[in-house]
């Protein structure tokens, strides 16, 4: 009866599906190629009217990160769908009387998907192809902050507790598949995580992301996915393959810090400008009056990568330490119960 009764959420779900489908269609249609130096404006005028032209953005300020917002269809729809499905799962649990820690919901929806939306729709997203330093802030949010928060939200556990029987079997089959075990193998995941940024900035990939909106959006997804493959088994609480002991987890986190520092120093010491054609063309346009020297901005970007990698790494250490302590306390409780049970059995045998 409940499945056949009318519910207002069906109307809202239908509207959401229609909006998401329309947005994905707009994305699939694509945009005409941009000439060199034609900056990508993140605001769609249908949603938020603006007066700036794509090639003439105002001077960047860090205050504008919180006041200058725009929407690209793909990251917007992705945020709505992922956060919405998670909240739907939490709602299903609560309707049947099961508890779900509010901290997990806050981590996944508020911090994880919230950070993803901020990185792609705030002033950071609007200027991510105008200033390399702003792009680097976005890079660190997407590759470290978002994966950590999503892992702490335990979405796999939530899905296993709320999905119907058949989709649950499919999910379990994926988790136990050989592909999942290979991709989550810690040394391989570590190699992918530390080499992906080098491939991004020292091949033609970064230049392609500046010239193509599609490549740019896929780069965002790639940063999150690679970070998820590496950090989920280390920091997450889901029953995913690739879980290792806490000492080895700490070792892997420690090993990532020199790579961020080395990459940041390498970018700072580069005499060749990353995205040279794109950033040089921007300076020749209307924004040339306020844009910093591209090489100075590149040095700043390398410093951001170096410093933020160490700072976020300390957050990771704190999270791992708390998880390790909690796991040790639970193990101690289980051991005490086992010893008490053995003692009780021994006492009853003597009597």
UniProtKB/TrEMBL annotation:
Topological type in the membrane: Multi-pass membrane protein
Primary place of residence? Answer: membrane
Q: Which residues cross the membrane?
A: 74-93, 105-124, 136-161, 182-201, 213-234, 246-268, 304-325
Q: Name one Pfam family in it.
A: Caa3_CtaG
Q: Which residues form the signal peptide?
A: none
Q: Name one GO cellular component term.
A: plasma membrane
Subcellular location as annotated: Cell membrane
Which keywords, in A-to-Z order, does the entry hold?
Answer: Cell membrane, Membrane, Transmembrane, Transmembrane helix
What protein does this entry describe?
Cytochrome c oxidase assembly protein
Organism taxonomic ancestry: Bacteria, Bacillati, Actinomycetota, Actinomycetes, Propionibacteriales
């Amino acid at each position: 009866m409940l499945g056949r009764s009318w519910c207002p959420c069906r109307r809202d779900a239908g509207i959401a599906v229609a909006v998401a489908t329309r947005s994905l269609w707009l994305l699939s249609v694509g945009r005409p190629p941009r000439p060199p130096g034609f900056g990508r404006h993140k605001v769609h005028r249908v949603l938020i009217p603006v007066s700036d032209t794509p090639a003439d953005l105002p001077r960047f300020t860090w205050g504008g990160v919180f006041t200058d917002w725009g929407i690209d269809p793909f990251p917007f729809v992705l945020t709505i769908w992922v956060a919405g499905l998670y909240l739907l799962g939490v709602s299903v649990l609560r309707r049947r009387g099961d508890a779900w820690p509010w901290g997990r919901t806050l981590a996944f929806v508020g911090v994880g998907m919230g950070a993803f939306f901020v990185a792609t729709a705030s002033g950071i997203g609007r200027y991510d192809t105008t200033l390399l330093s702003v792009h680097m802030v976005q890079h660190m949010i997407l590759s470290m902050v978002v994966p950590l928060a999503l892992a702490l939200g335990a979405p796999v556990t939530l899905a296993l507790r709320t999905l119907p029987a058949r989709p649950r079997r499919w999910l379990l089959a994926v988790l136990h598949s050989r592909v999942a075990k290979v991709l989550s193998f810690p040394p391989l995941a570590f190699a992918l995580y530390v080499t992906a940024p080098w491939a991004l900035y020292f091949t033609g990939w970064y230049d392609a992301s500046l010239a193509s909106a599609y490549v740019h959006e896929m780069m965002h997804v790639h940063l999150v996915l690679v970070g998820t493959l590496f950090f989920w088994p280390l920091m997450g609480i889901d029953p995913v393959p690739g879980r290792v002991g806490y000492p080895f987890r700490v070792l892997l986190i420690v090993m990532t810090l020199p790579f961020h520092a080395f990459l940041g120093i390498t970018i700072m010491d580069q005499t060749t400008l990353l995205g040279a054609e794109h950033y040089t063309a921007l300076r020749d346009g209307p924004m040339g009056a306020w844009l910093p020297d591209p090489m100075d901005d590149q040095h700043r970007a390398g410093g951001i990568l170096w410093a933020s990698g160490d700072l976020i790494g300390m957050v990771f250490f704190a999270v791992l330490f708390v998880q390790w302590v909690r796991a040790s306390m639970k193990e101690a409780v289980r051991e005490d119960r086992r010893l008490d049970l053995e003692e009780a059995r021994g006492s009853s045998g003597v009597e």
